[in-house]
Every structure is written in C-alpha cells, then in structure tokens.
Amino acid sequence: MNLTAIWSIYRFEMARFFRTLTQSFVSPVISTSLYFVVFGSAIGSRIDQVDGVSYGAFIVPGLVMLSVMMQGISNASFGIYFPKFIGTIYELLSAPINFIEIVIGFVGAAATKALFIGVVILITSALFVDLTIAHPLAMVAFLVLTCVSFALLGFILGIWARNFEQLQLVPLLVVTPLVFLGGSFYSISMLPPFWQTVTLFNPVVYLISGFRWSFYGLADVPIGLSLLAIAGFTALCLGVIWWIFKTGWRIRS
Amino acid sequence: MTDMVEIQNLAKRYESGFEALKGVSLNIREGEILALLGPNGAGKTTLISTVCGITLPTDGTIKVGGFDTITQYRQARSLIGLVPQEIHLEPFETVWNAVNYSRGLFGKKRNTKLVEDILRKLSLWDKKDSRSMELSGGMKRRVLIAKALAHEPRVLFLDEPTAGVDVELRRDMWKVVEDLRAQGVTIILTTHYIEEAEAIADRIGVINKGQILLVEETGALMKRLGKKTLRIELHDAVAAIPEALASYGLTLEDAGQTIVYDYDTNAERTGIVRLMADLAEAGLVLRDIQTKQNSLEDIFVDLVHKQQEGAA
Questions:
Q1: What are the residue boundaries of the ABC transporter domain, all occurrences included (chain B) (predicted)?
Q2: Closest CA of chain A from B182, distance in Å
Q3: Degrees, nearest 5: CA angle B110-B112-B113
C-alpha cells in the first residue's frame, strides 16, 4: 500500500477545502438556520410533535443527512472530475498507485469534508433545539458510513461526467428528490399506506431512518435493515469503482 | 549498455478503429538520450502515454528497468518521469505544493532540500509560493518539468518540451537535460525541432503512422543519409547551364549568379574536382564557394515521403 501517495492525494484535496474554508463553514450554518426558520417555525408551529419528539428536533437528523449526502457527492465528484477536466489526471494514471489508493485519497478527503459540514450542522442545530443522542456510537457510525458511501457515489459520478452539466445532473435530479422524499422532514408513518409502500423503494429512507434512530430511538424501518442498506450501497459503489479502474472506463483510453 | 526501456510489438487500436501504434518495437539504452521525431499524429504521444500507463496497450509488452508495465506497474512507473505536451496544472495550487504533491504520488517522503534544488535549477525558486494560474506559459512548463523530476526518475519522457517556448527557456531545458544525462538518467524526447534532436540526442528514432521507420545513432544517421550541397557563386551571371556541364545535374539560382551542385558524401567520388575543371574549361569565373550539410529535417522529410509513397 502506497500510504505516502494516499496522504498526498488526501492533503491536496483538503487544501482545496481549506482554501474556501469560510465559504465551506458559513454556507451550511446559514442554510441550516434557514431550514429551522422555514420548517421549524413555520411548519413546526402546526406540527407539535412526531412520535413524542418536537418537530424541530425531529428534522435535525434529516437535515444532517441531506447536507452530508450532497456534500459527499459534490466534493468527491468535483475532486476527481476537475483533474480530468484540466488534464492533471495524467499524474494519477502514471503514478505507481492502484485504484484502492486513489479512491481512499479522494473519497477520504470528500468524506472528511462532508463529516465536517455534518458536525457544523449538528452544532448549529443545537442552538435552535434540544438535541438528545440516544446511541452516540451508532450515530457516529451512520454519519461516517453515509459520508463515505455518498463520497463513493460522487467519485463514480465524477468519472462518468463528461462536462459540468452532467456533474450536477444526478445530484439535482436524482439524489435531491430521493433525500427530500426519504423522510428527511417527516416520518413515513405520516403518509397514506400506498405512499408508505412506495417510499420503501427509496434507499435513502433506510439511511435517514437509521440515523434518526441513533438520536431518538425512533425508526421507520428496522435498524438492521438500515445497516444492511448502507452496507449494500457502499459495497455496490466499491464494486462499480473496481470495475471502472479494471476497464479504464472514461479514465484510460 | 543495458536496455532501460524495452518495447516489443506494441499495438494500440482505439475504439474508433484507428490504429495509433502498429507493432512498435524499440529498445532504449540506459543513460542515453533518444529523440523521437515524427509528424503530427505519428504516434509519438500515444507511445509515451502507453509506456507511462496513461493509455492501455492493445497488444505487445513494455518493460522499464526490467519491470513489466502491466504486471509490475508499481516498480516500472516509479522509475518514470513524464513531462506532458500540454500544460496541465492545478491552477489554484502553489508551485511548491504542486511539486511536493507529485513526489508524494510516487511514494517518496518529503525532501524539501531536493525540491528546492530542482526549483532553483529551473529558476522557479522565486515563484515557489505563486499559484500556477499566475505564471507565464514558460514558467508553467518549468513547473511541469519540476514535477516530473520531483521523484528522481531514472527514465524521463519529455513530450515536446520546447514547443512554443522562448530561447532562454529552451537553453535552460537543454542544460537540465545535459545534467540529467550526466546523472545517468535515460531521456526520451519528442520534438518538432529537428535541430534540437540533432544537437542533444545520442540516437534518433523516426516514427510515422504508428510505425518506427528507423532508429540510429545521430552521427551515423547524418553520415549515412547525409548529402551535401555545393553552392558556386559566379563572377558573372549566366542565362543557362552550359551544355558541357549537363551531366552534373546542376541548377541555377539567384538569377543565374549561383550554380548549385548536390553530391553524396559517401560516394566513391564526389565529382567536385572534375566539376571545377569543367567550370574553368567552360570559361566560368568563380567568386565564392560554399558547402552545406543536409539537415536532419531533409532526411526526416525524405523518410516520411518514402513511406507515404510506399503506402500509395
């Protein structure tokens, strides 16, 4: 294992993040505050509690997941797409490193950035609502796994994308609707029975449900199923990335 | 001298069906400078990219330092440095970080002294904290070279490094190449500047349409294929070549003021002595005489044309 190379990629990617640290920090704080103003105050005033948890506190896990997933995808996809776009990918392809080392470097950095944003949102949320974390270890595990798995998805998208438009396509048209319809801001038990069944086909439901369980012990789906879903999703992404590097799809001619 | 790079029957066919390399075989000796010449689209960059691992070969084998570039890619690639043809740099990163990043990618621990030496040698030390986007084109090209040298490669590929750079930078690069040669680094250089190949290469390879047309010692190539031109300036211009001199295949230039005679340096007789006598007999008075060695460019163009005529 070329640990020095992994560390170099990681540092290089993190440097990009630190160059825009203010923007990276302020943006999630503002957007989280806005969510609390809109959802917490406007809608929350009409929904007193959800399964015994105040609506403001109920949406916190969903808010964190929403940001972490989007950040994981965008950071990783941009991280690998940008070298392709400007041509510096030649350095990675001609270096004595394998795909696992490249992925660890890029995905590790993207997951770290997403984790940082997730923690910032959690801290910001604590300023608005009383947060309780029933299963702290499980919370950390879900958070880290989600950061990693969505950074893996972002990495795949970054390799697949041929232009900046495609880079935005999947996050905006696929991931955002799935997250919003995945119980970020409501319990799926609040939906009519038919839509409850339909929602179960949304993989994001399992992630948000598991994460919310780690806070309040409340879950829309069994916690084991949530763990299985995130493990399966991670494995699927790893499999796709392994195939990409084996065949050189869209990276090696 | 052992071979540092061994390329056997290398073929590259793209999905479109285009064959960029057609069974290329080429051995490059340790410590030599090989200049690879060829017109645009000849396969020079594809050949380099395939050796470096950027492009996957369709067929054939490549060994660098005795290591197979596919099955032993770590060992093989760790020996190689690459300066690409195009300027590819992370625009927002500083020169210092960019060069250290390249070293790190090759698994080498930080060595600030070495990186400083490289930057100083390339006149980049003053720019170490500048972002790539703030540098001129020539400076960016120096950064590419610094990045390629950061992990102390034993084989260096320079893909048209002096294309579009000023004279000063070209001289600096030649100096760097000479220093590397002194350290025993094997250098493969592609260039459009034939005088560059002539000046610094130990051997010259000519590639066209994905095939190596020849690889020869620079001096031997010049000697084997070299022709000379004798230019005879006359005291008084003539309207036509006198009938008595028709057998020499002379041409007139400068409105009849200069007679041009092409001859083969390797021929048993050049015919110059006899020509001089015949000129005197024809009553022509000479003012000046010049000889000119045919350049590598003439040889190169000749080879490529012959291949094209053969294909036709």
A1: 5-234
A2: 25
A3: 130
> Which H or E element spans position B35?
strand B33-37
Residue A231: CA count within 13 A, CB half-sphere: 7
Domains of chain B as residue ranges with CATH: 3-223 (3.40.50.300), 227-293 (3.30.70)
Helix (H, G, I), strand (E, B) or coil at B254: helix
Tell me the pLDDT tens digit for each residue of B253-310: 988 899 999 887 767 788 888 899 898 888 888 999 988 776 666 677 777 777 667 6
pLDDT over 70 (residue B172): yes
For residue B307, the one-letter residue type is Q
Number of other residues whose CB lies within 10 A of the CB of residue B244:
12
- CA nearest to A4 within chain B: B107
B86/A94 Cβ within 8 A: no
B18 contacts chain A (CB < 8 A): no
Which three-class secondary structure state does DSSP give residue B40? coil
Contacts of B75 in chain A (CB under 8 A): 96
Q: Which residues of A touch B54 (CB under 8 A)?
A: 90, 93-94, 252-253
DSSP three-state, residue B11: strand
ipTM for this prediction: 0.82
Interface of B with A in 90-109 (CB under 8 A): 90-93, 97, 100-109
Report pLDDT digits (tens) over B97-138.
999 999 999 999 999 999 999 999 888 899 989 998 998 888
User: Do the chains contact at A8 and B101, CB–CB below 8 Å?
Assistant: yes
Q: Is the pLDDT of residue A67 over 80?
A: yes
Is residue B78 less than 8 Å (CB to CB) from chain A?
A: yes
What integer best gives the mean pLDDT of chain B? 87
Q: Domains of chain A: which residue ranges?
A: 3-43+53-247
Q: Are residues A87 and B78, on separate chains, in Cβ contact within 8 Å? A: no
Q: A231: Cβ–Cβ under 8 A, 6 or more apart, which residues? A: A145
Whether residue B1 has pLDDT greater than 70:
no
Select the residue of B97, B102, B107 nearest A91 (Cβ to Cβ): B102
| Residue A87: closest C-alpha in chain B | B88
| Whole-structure pTM value | 0.80
